[in-house]
Automatic annotation (TrEMBL):
Keywords: Acyltransferase, Transferase. This is 1-acyl-sn-glycerol-3-phosphate acyltransferase. It comes from the Bacteria. InterPro entries: Plipid/glycerol_acylTrfase. The keyword Acyltransferase applies. Residues 48-160 form the Phospholipid/glycerol acyltransferase domain. GO terms for molecular function: acyltransferase activity. It holds the Pfam family Acyltransferase. Pathway: Lipid metabolism.
Amino acid sequence: MMMQSFQQQVPAAVPKRQVGVVGRCCQWWLNKRGWSLAGNMANEPRMVLIVAPHTSNWDFVLGVMYMLALGIRLSFFAKHTLFKGPLEGIMRRLGGLPVERSRAHGVVENMAARIGQSEQLIVALAPEGTRKAVYPWKSGFLYIAQNARIPVQCVGLDYQQKCLKFGPVLSVSNDLTASMESVYGFYRTVSAKYPQQTITEPNA
């Protein structure tokens, strides 16, 4: 994949936020630490971005920094306990959507409906659903994409190459098993912060 700069043009259809001082600080920090970009974000106003592997709290920090550095407006799920006190305003401004895991029934259907009613809405999800080693990954993102009739793009945080990789764009079919295999295939090429906690095939 060809490396890109943080000055690259974000596709026209993608919902945007102003980069501003905070975004430029994120650009500086990522550059200083040697982090880069590869590939291209899909030119879609509505989409599900799956971000993996997820093995460390640093994944969220890096993901937010890339979002601000590029000036992309995303929504994402987060534990409802993070939406209390002074953190609530920050989380909501970043695009956070509170979810109480014990009452998560209907989240997929509600999110699909919300996307379907929006002109621009990109949702970022961690398909593993946990930092621990787990297989199979959660497939809720495929149901969201299928119900809202939108594509899914794979995004990888590669710690070995210090790179955020925009990967393949999937048009979700009724064959969810085949769609998941395409997802696993891409993430087998991405090095997690803790590789031993990433499982992309059975009996691994």
